[in-house]
TrEMBL record:
SMART domains per record: HTH_XRE (SM00530)
SUPFAM superfamilies xref list: lambda repressor-like DNA-binding domains
Protein name: Helix-turn-helix domain-containing protein
Pfam families: HTH_3
Matching InterPro entries: Cro/C1-type_HTH, Lambda_DNA-bd_dom_sf
HTH cro/C1-type domain segment(s): 14-67
Organism for this UniProt entry: Amycolatopsis dongchuanensis
Database matches in Gene3D superfamilies: lambda repressor-like DNA-binding domains
Length: 123
């Protein structure tokens, strides 16, 4: 079974934050940038679409992984993302770097890591 969204957990977190801030569901939807019908459907057990999910977890200020259900043992077995994969979004967020500069940094890191891995395998 692949990982999936725990929609009830997301809805409960939204409800708790909504109540803590004294908001109506309509106000929450407006602040999060989603339709009121989306949060209403979630209250009836439906899952949000990807864009809605992203908007809601950003509104909550919580990591998306908080609302993921992992198959038994899958979380422990999953491969850790490469350093390049972890760096890419950080570089993309740097407004002062052009796309070419971002790619250059990733290329340099990739070459350096391949060199280091090859050296460690040989030694």
């Amino acid at each position: 079974m692949p990982g999936r969204l725990d929609a009830p957990r997301l809805y409960a977190a939204l409800d708790a934050q909504r109540e803590a801030r004294g908001l109506s569901w309509r106000q929450l939807a407006a602040e999060a940038g989603v339709s009121p019908s989306l949060v209403s459907r979630m209250g009836n057990g439906h899952r949000p679409d990807l864009d809605g999910f992203i908007a809601l977890v950003q509104w909550l200020g919580m990591p998306a992984e908080t609302f993921m259900v992992w198959p038994e043992g899958a979380r422990e077995k999953r491969a850790r993302p490469s350093l390049e994969a972890q760096l890419a979004p950080l570089l993309r967020a740097e407004e002062e770097l052009s796309e070419a500069d971002q790619q250059h940094v990733l290329d340099v890191v990739g070459i350096t890591l391949r060199h280091m891995r090859a050296r460690h395998k040989g030694g």
